[in-house]
Amino acid sequence: MMDLILGVAKRDSRIRGVYMNGSRTNPNAPKDIFQDYDIVYVVKETASFIADENWIDVFGKRLYMQMPEKMDGMRGMETDFANCYGYLMQFADGNRIDLHVVTPEYGIRDILHDRLCIVLLDKDGALPEIPEPTDEDHWVKKPAKEEYFCCCNEFWWMQNSVGKGLWRREITYALDMLNLYIRPQLMKMLSWYVGVGTGFSCSVGKSGKYLHRYLSSEEYKRLMRTYPGSGREDIWQSVFDMCDLFDETARKVGRALGYFYNEEEAGGSRMFLDCTCRLAQGAEDILLDGCARAFPDGVPERV
């Protein structure tokens, strides 16, 4: 595949250089058969490539593909076809190429801002020299105390939405609140926890896909329990598991960084959530009144 990619570039006078980025250039990324070839052709101009879409047939039999810039244009979004145009291609032989054609000016800026680039071909000697590839740009960053505060506040505030969604039996709404708004805060806190333990010198990968490398076996099992099935009771349990994991992790991160963790906020949110879970369907009481009657000796640690 690399011979094909470079052979096409060498034979086409419009293509002046080739560089690669992505997981294949990342020394810390696991190697497997599903790794894409993230390839960029540096070209004199993009117009002739865009005008003849059949030029990509040379790479093999395609099963399906996507052209993101073209789709952006179809939706009326801002585009820059003159400087960057892409073809994401899945082939019948199992290979995938994410290929872009870019102008030299665009390519140079891209290379200088992406430390996972490797220059494969430079016909004119115009591309900049770059150091050995590293994923350092993707390492977990130490949060400022304001960022830590906002993460905690968002996590506990959004429990209100998932709770009422489950009480109303609006399952799709509740799952969206859980996965689109609450889970990102948990993943952020877990990444900071890993950062604290590694001196903020590693990447947990997109969507936390490398977290299993850094969490203990038990911690990772607890994270997996936060992913529910579609049953209402399963979702409730995953929410409580998520709250427990977040609360413990946020306390550890806060202590390690010297940041204040608002226990009163967390406790209030958890109490409201527990009460919502216990609240009878169709109840007309103010929730906290009902909660006080349901738990005269205080809200239990786990419902």
Short account of what is shown:
The protein is an alpha+beta fold and 303 residues long.
Task: Give an account of the 3D structure.
- By secondary structure, this protein is of the alpha+beta class.
- It has two domains: 134 residues, 2-Layer Sandwich (Beta Polymerase, domain 2), CATH 3.30.460.10; 156 residues, Four Helix Bundle (Hemerythrin (Met), subunit A) (Up-down Bundle).
- The chain is built from ten helices and six strands; from the N terminus they run αββαβαββαβαααααα.
- A six-stranded mixed sheet has the order 3-4-5-2-1-6.
- Helix 6 runs parallel beside helix 8.
- The longest helix is centred in the middle third of the chain and has 28 residues.
- The protein is elongated and about 75 Å long.
- The termini are far apart.
- The C terminus is likely disordered.
List keywords for this structure.
single chain, 47% helix, 6 strands, 303 residues, Beta Polymerase, domain 2, Four Helix Bundle (Hemerythrin (Met), subunit A), elongated, alpha+beta, 6-stranded mixed sheet, 10 helices
